[in-house]
Input
Amino acid sequence: MEQRVSLITLGVADVARSRAFYEALGWTASTLGDGSVAFFQCGGMILSLFARADLAGDAGLPAEGDGFRATALAYNTRSHDEVDTVLADMIAAGATLVKPAQEAFWGGYAGYAADLDGHLWEIAWNPGFAIAEDGSVQLPE
Output
């Protein structure tokens, strides 16, 4: 198996509502899909939004259950100050602030917000991660 992630799928309560949330952040949805799923190209990966019940059914699992999901998506910024800007944009689009941005023990600056379905996003500036012009992040060797 190659060391890569191709697609991240979030189970959401309402695909159209969640698509509108990400579009309010300035993201562009693909024309692929019939309304029951939405896709966003994110560098070399894809973020998809799929109805939670349908996603659970596809995996053969019950859709019930909430709380901490032991997962967080991350958006790394190019600067310290951009963390606050991105968090503010997310809140304006309907996200919930989970943890205000603050200096992090690892030397960066980060905060957390939850999207409309409670999916956790860490918004962080990490001085050890270089971000290429295309938005890709490369680990130091």
Observations:
- The mean pLDDT is 89.
- The domain at 1-65 is CATH 3.10.180.10 (2,3-Dihydroxybiphenyl 1,2-Dioxygenase; domain 1).
- The first strand starts at residue 7 and ends at 12.
